[in-house]
Specification:
heterodimer, A: about 120 residues, alpha/beta, Rossmann fold, five-stranded parallel sheet, 5 helices, B: about 280 residues, alpha+beta, Beta-Lactamase, 2 domains, 6 strands
Chain lengths: ~120, ~280
């Protein structure tokens, strides 16, 4: 069975913990955590990931800048990206998707929704 | 059949005696009669052969029909068997589908329950992860913002005289709304007195209401209420409180004040851990 890897980029330890809990429900998914966009880019440079789950509002480098940087890197241009944010407006959603995000989840997050989204993007049954 | 050639009559000069002629006539008659009988027999034989052929054809046709009827009967029996099998399969399929649906429903329930428990665990874990009053407050705010989806909210503590609820932390609340409120005759005070949360499930919680907050949660240590949390509005995409929120309110009510008071006492004790003697008489 294939093994997948996921990078969570989230500045809130609580949200990170919650995401790790949720994604632990997916078999064969290895999760790595990053505190912010810069930390995320550093981890992306040293390993490859099958999917990235990132918050938008973060210090140092926000999620949208991270998405832009990731998409400009040929090595990660096709890596699925899930945006998690408190912003629920249609404009924010469109902006994130235009930058190259594949899915957009608004807070408060529901674990089943996160699991379903990640599974769908990784094409896991 | 052609008639046999007749003998030429005897010459008239030598006329036959009458007896002989009579006998010859008799023979001729017999021959004619025999010829007629033979003709009839031949005709009859021909008819019979024709009839036999007809009967054989009829027989073949009937045999073919019987065989066809047998095939039809066999096919009908097969169809009946297949229909029964189909019904049986459909029944089994329906039962399997029902079981599968029930299983899916149970799985969804488990996943939902798991999500609730994960939220509660994370919230509890975070609230107790700090021993500084500021750290605890920040974590309580994070639970409200990230897990409940609160947009504007405030946390109040009861003053020493038990007369007022004083705001100690807030988010998204206008300054003129962030004031102390009496413990009597106010919605917040009533919740503090009763010690049970008030959650309005009918209103759209994303619409800010600073006079009648859609959710007010008492904060207690044991049975003593020491403060309340008022949620004035939620994020625009969250318009109702759900089961997870009620569980989180319960958890906040039971843990937030204890964590906050514990952290305050710890800070007041200059973060000194009590000596071993403080724990020795705890044996139960």
């Amino acid at each position: 069975m294939s093994e997948y890897s996921c990078l969570i980029v989230e500045d809130s330890p609580m949200m990170r913990q919650l995401l790790v809990f949720a994604l632990a429900r997916i078999k064969n998914l290895r999760v790595t955590e990053a505190d912010d966009g810069v930390d995320g880019l550093r981890k992306l440079a040293s390993a490859s990931y099958d999917i990235i789950v990132t918050d938008i509002n973060m210090p140092i480098m926000d999620g949208l800048k991270l998405v832009k940087r990731v998409r400009s890197d040929p090595a990660h241009k096709d890596t699925p990206i899930v945006i998690i944010t408190t912003e629920g407006s249609q404009e924010d959603r469109q902006r994130a998707l235009q930058l190259g995000a594949n899915a957009y989840i608004t807070k408060p997050i529901q674990a089943p929704q996160v699991i379903a989204t990640v599974k769908e993007l990784l094409k896991i049954d | 059949m052609a008639e046999p050639p007749r003998k030429p009559p005897p010459p008239s000069s030598e006329s036959a005696p009458p007896d002989l002629r009579k006998e010859a006539d008799q023979v001729l008659q017999n021959l004619t009669k025999g010829s007629r009988v033979t003709d009839e027999f031949i005709r009859e034989h021909s008819k019979l052969r024709s009839r036999t052929q007809e009967l054989e054809q009829e027989n073949a046709r009937l045999r073919a029909q019987v065989e066809a009827d047998d095939a039809v009967r066999e096919l009908l029996a097969k169809i009946a068997r297949l229909e029964t099998e189909k019904k049986e399969l459909l029944t089994r399929f329906a039962a399997a589908e029902e079981a599968s649906n029930a299983f899916d429903e149970r799985r969804r329930e488990f996943e939902s329950e798991f999500a609730n428990l994960a939220n509660l665990f994370v919230a509890s874990n975070q609230i107790h992860a700090s021993m500084s009053p500021r750290g605890v407050t920040r974590r309580i705010k994070e639970v409200l913002a990230q897990l409940v989806g609160a947009e504007s909210y405030a946390m109040y503590m009861v003053d020493n005289q038990n007369e007022e609820l004083v705001p100690i932390a807030s988010e998204g609340v206008p300054a003129d709304k962030l004031v102390s409120v009496g413990t009597r005759g106010t919605r917040l005070g009533d919740v503090a007195h009763r010690g049970s949360a008030v959650v309005d499930e009918e209103v759209d919680s994303s619409v800010a209401n600073f006079d009648e907050p859609p959710a007010i949660v008492p904060l207690a240590i044991d049975d003593r209420v020491v403060g309340v949390i008022a949620i004035f509005s939620t994020l625009r995409q969250k318009t109702r409180f759900d089961t997870t929120d009620f569980e989180l309110f319960k958890l906040l009510g039971q843990h937030a004040a204890a964590a906050l008071v514990g952290a305050s006492l710890f800070a007041k004790a200059e973060r000194r851990i009590p000596g071993l003697e403080a724990f020795l008489d705890l044996s139960v």
